[in-house]
Every structure is written in C-alpha cells, then in structure tokens.
Design goal:
The chain starts with 9 loop residues before the first helix and ends with a helix. It is mostly helical.
Length: 541
C-alpha cells in the first residue's frame, strides 16, 4: 500500500525503540495495497509511536495507530491483531486492541462482548510482558477502563482512563502520543452542563500545539474538532475540520467528522459534501455504522436546505443498510433519528405519530422515537394518542436516573416536558402549555447536545417560539427564535418562524431579513409551503 506516510530510515527502524515517522507498505509488505485494484493509495495521515516491537512490524503498527485515531474500529482491530500475529512479543499491540474495543469514547460504551474481548487482550498483554515502563503504563491505563464491577457505567470508566493518561502525559512530557490521547480523554470527560468548557479547551490547547508540531497527524486534527464541538467555540474548529478531510480521506470518519463543526456553524452544503463522501467510503468498506452515522448528519443538512427529495432518498436507503452484529450508539441513533427528523422537520405530524420504536440496548434512543410520536400526535390535534408515549418517556427517565446516566435522563426529561406541553396546548390551556414549554427550553439550555447527534430533534426553544406564535404572541415568539438561533444557527424552521413572527409583529425589515436569508440558505429549494410564503412576502413588499 502506498500512503502519505513515509517510512523511517532503515537504520532507525532497526532500533527497538525506533520512531517510525509514518507508515507506508509496499504491495509485497501488505495485503492492504490498493495498487492492483486501481484504487487510490490509502491516505490515513502521519503517526509516530515509539515502541519495542520488532522492526518488521513498525509500519503495520503505525498504520493501526492511524486507523485508531480515525475511529476505524473494525479495520483498526484487525490491523493490531495482524501486528501481534507477526510479532507475538509486541505487547503494546494488545493495548491497541483493547482501546479499539472501547468503541467511540464519546458514545455509550462497549457491549458485553466487546468488554470481554478487551479484557482478554489486556490479560494477553500482561502475559507477554511490556518491555518498557511506558508501554506497561499504556496497557494498565486501558485496563483502568475495563476494570471494576460490570455495572460500572461508561462515564466512570472514561474518567479512570483519562486520569491514567494524565499521569502518563506528566511522566512522559515529550511523548506526543501520550499528550494526544490524554487530550482526547480529557475532551470526553467534558461536562456538557459546564458552560466554560474547561476540559475541552484545556485539551484543545494541547492539541493545537500537537497540530503545529505534527500537521498531518489524524488524531490531533480529529480530537480538535471534538474539543471545539460546542456552539460558542465552534468557529475555532473550522481550520481543523478542513485539514482533517485532507489528512485522512481514506477513513470514513475523517470525512464525516468535519461536519460536526459545519453543523455547529450552519454550513449545510459543506456538511452535505462531507457526509456524502463519508457514507460512500463507509459503504464501500462495509462499515455500516459509519455509513449510517454520516447519513444521519446528511439527512439533517438536507432538511435545513429544504432538499426534501434528497433526504427522502436517505430515509428510503437507511433501513436497507445492513445491521452490525453489535450496533453501536451511532448506528442505533441514526436508525431512530433519520425517519423522525424527516417527519418533524417537514411538519408531517401524522407521519411522525405513526413511527415505530426499534429494538435497541440504548433506552434514550427509544425515547427519541416516542418523543417524535408524541409531538406528532399532539401537534396533529390528537392529544390522547400522545399520552402513552409521554408515559413511556417518564419511564425511561426513571430508568436512566437509576442507571446514574444523568445526561440522557435530562435530555429525555426535556422531551417529556416538551411533549406534555403540546398535549396541554392541544387541549386549549395555552398559558399552562407555554409555561411548561418554557421549562423544557430552560432545562435544555443547561447542557449541550451530545456528540453522536447533529442536534436535538427540535430545539426546545424553537418549539417555544412555535407555541407563542400559534398563541398570537409574535413579538415574544421572535425573541425565542432569536435565542434558539444562537445555539443552532441557520436552522430552516427557526428562520421561517422568526420571519413569520417579525411580519406578524410589524417588524417588516426583520421579516425581510429572515425570509431573504431563508431563500439564500436553501437556494432553489423544494416547493415547501414555507418557501412559497417567504417569496410571496418579499414580492409584496
């Protein structure tokens, strides 16, 4: 395989502790070469990792590291296992296997099967015996994650892993990989209710320095995007987002990940381009989770562009994507989110009310569908049909609280409050409904959206704007739409609602601004009634 990664000098490779500044296998060295198939050379970025493994496996080891940094789980695990097969004394490869089996550290944690496989890898690494203190500390750090009682949740496990890597980073201040992994896990521990983003920005400072030192490092660029994936600081991540696409275009996640920043700043066409490429590469590789995750973000962007025919194709294709043996959070979330967004964003209330929850090990993902069903029924005028879904949301909140999953318990509670508000609204008690919806919006404001999602199904404050507008309070509605835009810029429904509210409150200049921006944002768009209304308003000026 040819890559952008260069082999280290032969004499340097002969040292057990050598640093291979990059990796690039020739067709003779690797069965991963794309030359014979006519495909483009594999590009995963540059990785350097001192280790005591045999010189013959250095290139393979650093390819595995590059895959790990781009969250390419299946390919990465296979690559680390190949290293171990070729060098049975390469203990640090077992750390790579176990780390891969954490799956996405920003998600909900590994399955029971993955935990057992990781523990087996760790024990194997201990049996081999690490040849350096650094390698032993890496192995024991990941053991911190997988140790303890089976019921120990992902949050507690990741904090242990972060603490362990902070110790490694202090012990080896010149070890760039230790610094990068320490920054990654520091970002994962960021409290989504903490508005100064202390951990994320601390991690970003480390990663900015590493990016300057190693501009083609996939992990430095990747994790910078995660550390800036919050509305107030998202613009800081644009450079890393665009760089990551160029660093590792062979990795599906590297093509998708920039869309986290594009979504945060409302750059919808950039998000479409990014996720079309990601979904295509993932599909070709048989990576179903990455394919669906990209399709989720793609659907969200298409909906904001009013490209309903394109998003309809995504909705139709998603159920046909093969299910993974153990679906992770990204896959499970996408399967629930894509049809729910398609219905809700278009105001297809009856369609939303008829959605069916899919089996999943993640209770909060089932909640997503129940919330869409409840909103659809209530906003479609059938309050009674919403009640069973709201009861299910309450049950899921209790379940998540019992599991000490505070973040998702709060997210589902926002959904329960929002759905309940629309039930009350449908029954005619508008003031009580507005108060309840305001409570939901205020609660949602206390935290940020999760990394797995391009955004909440509908921002609660946007829903509050809708309710106020329908209650004949356009000036109050406009204030809520404008607050919602700060966190979720360039959303179609927020812009249209703001334009309507401005028009109805006699603020013609503002109405023109919002409707003009809506038409500019969507381009030609589809024949949504909202766009027709905006054109008529502007034409009548």
């Amino acid at each position: 395989m040819n890559t952008r990664i260069n082999l280290a000098a032969p004499l340097l490779a002969l040292a057990l502790a050598a640093t291979t500044t990059a990796w690039a296998h020739s067709p003779e060295e690797s069965n991963h070469s794309h030359g014979k198939s006519g495909r483009a050379p594999e590009q995963l970025g540059r990785v350097s990792f001192d280790n005591s493994c045999a010189p013959a496996v250095q290139a393979r080891f650093e390819r595995a590291m590059a895959l790990l940094h781009s969250f390419w789980w299946r390919e990465g695990e296979q690559a680390f296992r190949e290293v171990l097969e070729r060098d049975p004394n390469c203990a640090i490869a077992t750390w790579g296997i176990a780390t891969i089996l954490i799956d996405n550290p920003f998600a909900g944690g590994p399955s029971t099967v993955q935990i057992q496989r990781a523990q087996d890898a760790i024990e194997h690494g201990r049996a081999i015996g690490a040849k350096t203190e650094r390698e032993r500390m890496f192995i024991e750090a990941v053991a911190q994650y997988f140790g303890g009682a089976p019921e120990r949740n992902h949050g507690a496990r990741i904090r242990s892993l972060s603490d362990a890597f902070e110790i490694i980073a202090r012990r080896f201040p010149d070890d760039d990989e230790a610094q990068i992994f320490s920054a990654l896990y520091l970002t994962v521990t960021q409290d989504l209710t903490e508005k100064t983003f202390t951990s994320a920005l601390k991690a970003a400072a480390i990663l900015e320095a590493q990016s300057k030192k190693h501009p083609d490092h996939p992990g430095a660029a990747h994790y910078l995007i995660h550390s800036y994936d919050y509305p107030p600081i998202a613009n800081k991540g644009l450079q890393a987002a665009r760089r990551y696409i160029e660093i590792a275009p062979s990795a599906p996640h590297a093509l998708h990940m920039p869309s986290h920043i594009f979504t945060r700043v409302g750059a919808w066409q950039d998000s479409v381009t990014s996720n079309l490429r990601s979904a295509s590469v993932a599909k070709a590789a048989g990576d179903f989770e990455d394919q669906l995750h990209a399709m989720d973000y793609l659907a969200y962007a298409y909906l904001q562009l009013a490209n309903d025919s394109a998003v309809k194709r995504v909705v139709a294709e998603a159920p046909d994507v093969q299910k993974s043996a153990t679906p992770g959070l990204g896959e499970a979330y996408a399967r629930a989110a894509i049809p729910a967004r398609y219905a809700i964003e278009r105001g297809a209330w009856q369609e939303a009310a008829q959605l069916q929850p899919q089996p999943t090990r993640f209770a909060f993902i089932k909640a997503f569908t129940h919330y869409a069903r409840a909103l659809g029924a209530a906003r479609g005028g059938d309050a009674a049909a919403s009640e069973s879904d709201v009861q299910e949301l309450a049950r899921i909140v209790d379940m998540l609280k019992a599991a000490k999953n505070a973040y998702w318990a709060t997210e589902v509670e926002v959904q329960r409050l929002g759905a309940s508000a629309w039930i009350v609204f449908a029954r005619g008690n508008r003031e009580a409904a507005i108060d309840l919806m305001r409570t939901a919006a205020d609660l949602e404001d206390t935290s940020e959206k999760h990394a797995v999602s391009p955004g909440r199904l509908v921002p609660a404050r946007e829903l509050l704007g809708d309710m106020l507008l329908e209650s004949g309070k356009p000036a109050e509605a406009l204030a809520q739409y404008e607050r919602s835009q700060v966190r979720d810029p360039n959303r179609f429904r927020t812009h249209y609602g703001a334009g309507q509210a401005a028009a109805q409150s006699g603020q013609r200049d503002k109405a023109k601004q919002y409707f003009t921006k809506l038409l500019e944002m969507t381009g030609v768009g589809e024949l949504r009634p909202e766009l027709q209304n905006a054109r008529r308003y502007l034409a009548g000026d």
